[in-house]
Design brief:
The protein is α+β, with helices and mostly antiparallel strands. The protein is built from 4 helices and 5 strands, in the order ααββαβββα. A hairpin with a 2-residue loop joins strand 3 (73-79) and strand 4. The radius of gyration is 18 Å and the shape is globular.
Amino acid sequence: MKRFGRDGRFMQDALGAFDHKQLIHFFDKIGVDTHAPDGYRVFPTSHSSITIIKALADEMNHLGVDILCGEKVEEIFIEASKIKGLKTQNNTFNCSNIVLATGGLGYPVLGAEGDGHSIVDKLGHKVTDLHPAMMPLKTKRLG
């Protein structure tokens, strides 16, 4: 959290509710072998994100979760401070919970256009200034 400065505190509640040990247990339960070389950051032993993606998709299928792609959210409905549903360009859904993964602005072709931020801003969430950023790729020259 310190790497994010004062803004890193946003993670405190989430990490307090579900820490790295619980994450390791969760992935073990759904069939993913993991390791935490530094004691905190958790990686699949396969070192492939596909392992995680497949395991999570299989678990959601097992739980009966519907995954809809290409459904751009246009509006979230709130009544008496409670989520009641959402509207996409194709459908309207009644629901009491939403997981909104807005993505970053570093690679817009992957679908992150910043529109999720404007939706939650309208709902009263504080949205800090956004800046596109990419992770560095370090290589070693052979020979």
